[in-house]
C-alpha cells in the first residue's frame, strides 16, 4: 500500500499552528475565510486574542480589526496556503461545527466585508479599514451600508478580471488581424458574463441582505430581458439593460424587503406559493415602472461625470483622486466606488477611475524603496520590503502598507504624495484626449496592463498609464527619501520578513 505525501509545506502548517492559540483556540473561532492577503476570522470573544504575540509572529505582516472580522495579514500566496491548514486545525479541535471544516476559496469572507483586489476598492487587496475597528454597534451606518454594497460586487471580481483579460486578448488579435476564426468565440466568452451581470448582482444582493438569492436574481433579470423594449414608462421606451447594475441592485434589495414582509404575514401553509409570487410581482412591477428609469438616469449621470472629471479636471482631478484614495481606504469609504466602477464598465466598456486610483499603489512602492535605501541597518524591515515588493509591483500593497509605511507613519503620507503625482499625470493625459480605462475591477500596478483600454488606442493608453505609474514610483521615492524619514532610525514594532 502506497501513501501519498502531503503536498502542503510544513511551514504553512506551523504558521497555522502558531496562530490558533493566539486567537483564543478553536473554541473561539466562529468562521474561517480568506481573501487575497488576509486570513479572516469571526471570533466569539476578542478579549481572548493575544494581540502583541500574534503581531510578533514572523509570518504576520499586520492585523486589521473590522467590526465583523479579525483579519490577519499574511500576504498573497501565503494566506491561500495557511488557511486550509488553519481550517483543518480548527475542525480537528472543534469538529462539532461543520461550517468550520468547509474549505474556503480565495473570495471574500461572508462574515465580513469582502475584498476586492486592487484599487477598485483598495490597493491593498482586501476591503475593510486599515486600522483597528470597534464592536459592531460602533460602526457608522453609512460605512456599514457601503461595505454591504461592496459585498455584493466583490464576488464578481474574478469573473470581471477573467473576462476583461480575454476581451483584451480578443481586441489585440482583431487589431493584428490574427486568428479571425477565433476572435468571435473570444468575444462571446468575454461578453457573456457582462450581458448577464445584472442577474448575478441581484442574486448577491438578496444573499447579502437576507433574502432568497434566486428571487433576487429573478427580479434583477428583468433589467436585461429583451422584452422590456416593448414597455413605455414616462413617455419613453425602456431598453434592455437600462439602469444596469444599479437598477439590479435596487430591484433585488426591494425584493428582499417584500419577501421579508411576506414571511412575517403569510400563513405557513401558503408561504411556498404566495411569498415568491408576491416578491417577484411587486418588486418586478416597481422595477419596470420606476427603478429601471431612475437607475438609468443615475448611471448616465455617472458616466457623464466620470468623463468630464478627467477631460476638464485634468491634473487637478488626478492629483485629488490619487492622493486621497488611501485615506478613503482607511475610513472605509472606498467601498462606494465599487458600483461606480461596475456601472462604468457596463456602460462604456471600461472605468476611467480605476487607473487613477491605482497610482496610490505606485506611491507605496516608491515609498518602500526609499525606506529600503535609507534605513540600511533595519535588516528585518528590509527583508520585509524585499519579500513584499513583487506583490506591490503587481498592485497588492497590503504587505507594504502594514509591514512598512504605516508602522513608520510619515512614509504613509509621502506614499499618498506619490499617488497624487501619478494620478495627476494620468489626469493630464486624459485632458489631452488620451483617457486610460480598465476593463475590469481588481488588479493594479503592472497587473493592470492587460486590462487597459481607452479611446486613443492601445499604444497611447499603455503609454499614459506607464507614465503615471513611473511618476508615482518616483514621487513616492523622492518624497519619502527627503521628507518621510526625518528622525527615523528604525521602525517601531517592525515585523520580520514573512
Topology of this protein?
Layout: H1 10-22, E1 29-34, E2 38-43, H2 51-55, E3 62-65, E4 70-73, H3 78-93, H4 141-153, H5 157-176, H6 183-195, H7 197-208, H8 213-224, E5 232-233, E6 236-237, H9 244-265, H10 268-331, H11 337-348, H12 353-357, H13 359-374, H14 379-393, H15 398-408, H16 410-431, E7 437-438, E8 452-453, H17 458-484
Antiparallel strand pairs: 1-2, 2-4, 3-4, 5-6, 7-8
Quickly describe the structure.
The chain is mainly α. It has helices at residues 10-22, 51-55, 78-93, 141-153, 157-176, 183-195, 197-208, 213-224, 244-265, 268-331, 337-348, 353-357, 359-374, 379-393, 398-408, 410-431, 458-484, and strands at 29-34, 38-43, 62-65, 70-73, 232-233, 236-237, 437-438, 452-453.
Describe, in plain words, how this protein is organized in 3D.
The chain is mostly helical and 498 residues long. 60% of the residues lie in helices and 6% in strands. The longest helix has 64 residues, at 268-331. The radius of gyration is 24 Å and the shape is globular. The two termini are 38 Å apart.
Helix content range: 55-70%
The sequence of SSEs as H and E is HEEHEEHHHHHHEEHHHHHHHHEEH
Percentage beta strand: 5-15%
| Uncertain regions spanning at least 5 consecutive residues | 1-8, 97-125, 128-138, 491-498
Shape from CA axes? globular
Average pLDDT taken over every residue: 83
Main sheet summary:
4 strands, antiparallel
N-to-C terminal Cα separation, in Å? 38 Å
Q: By helix and strand content, what is the structural category? A: mainly alpha
Taking all Cα atoms into account, the compactness measure Rg is: 24 Å
Total helical segments: 17
Arrangement of strands in the largest sheet: 1-2-4-3
Strand runs, count? 8
